[in-house]
Design brief:
This protein has seven helices and no strands. The model has no long low-confidence stretch (mean pLDDT 90). With 219 residues, it is an all-alpha fold. α1 runs antiparallel to α7, α2 packs antiparallel against α3 and α4 crosses α7.
């Protein structure tokens, strides 16, 4: 085996393994999101699609590793075609079904507020962490016949009126969640980049193996 073929074989195996790890992380992240936000419509479809694509990528990379180790031309071409199809699917999901973080924030705050109405103190976590009060503002408590809790005040000091948070948690949480859009895009396009590089290396390996096979036939 030539040095170039060995390099491509090792590179293909390493990229396959990297894709396998990224696919496993995608499956774990989507599963966690679906469990944590089980009632959310905003993430349901994107995460289910992420689970499907992640599972297919995980299985195909195992196939790719076997193809690289066996130096099978046919298996390598099949693997490259499968990953290329998954790349197309991934790009489609990125543009057609991204996670709506603003809707996710509104759903999260709405569920917490419904719990608050039944005296579960489910809003306190968000109010303390994001310096907000109520679903849309402090008037939510007054309109619902509830007392404004200490969590709506800076340092939970209800004795100072000026320390009352006046912004609703839906707005604060939406701002915080939207920042996650950038990280989602970075992770999505990083995975697409690794997949494309895997396809290119797999294709080069298949071509190199084909050329080596032809040379053996002539000699």
């Amino acid at each position: 085996m030539s040095c170039g073929t060995t390099t491509l074989k090792v590179s293909s195996f390493v990229l396959d393994f990297l894709c396998c790890v990224l696919a496993a992380l995608t499956i774990a992240a989507c599963s966690y999101a679906l469990i944590s936000f089980s009632h959310s419509i905003a993430i349901r479809v994107p995460c289910i699609l992420g689970l499907v694509l992640g599972s297919l990528l995980f299985c195909s990379t195992v196939f790719g590793c076997i193809a690289a180790l066996r130096e099978s031309i046919r298996m390598t071409w099949i693997f490259a075609a499968i990953v290329l199809a998954l790349v197309c699917g991934q790009i489609t999901v990125i543009f057609a079904q991204p996670i709506n973080f603003e809707l996710l924030a509104n759903e999260t705050v709405y569920d917490a507020w419904q719990g608050q109405l039944y005296h579960q103190s489910s809003m306190s976590y968000f109010e303390i962490k994001y310096h907000c009060c109520g679903q849309t503002g402090p008037t939510n408590y007054l309109d619902s016949g509830l007392r404004i809790p200490k969590s709506c005040y800076f340092n939970q000091n209800a004795t100072v009126d000026t320390d009352l948070y006046t912004i609703g948690c839906d707005q604060k949480l939406a701002t915080a969640f939207i920042k996650g859009t950038r990280w989602e895009r970075i992770s999505d396009w990083s995975l697409v980049g690794v997949e494309m590089l895997t396809v290119i290396v797999a294709g080069l390996l298949a071509i190199t193996l084909q050329n080596a096979e032809r040379r053996r036939l002539y000699h």
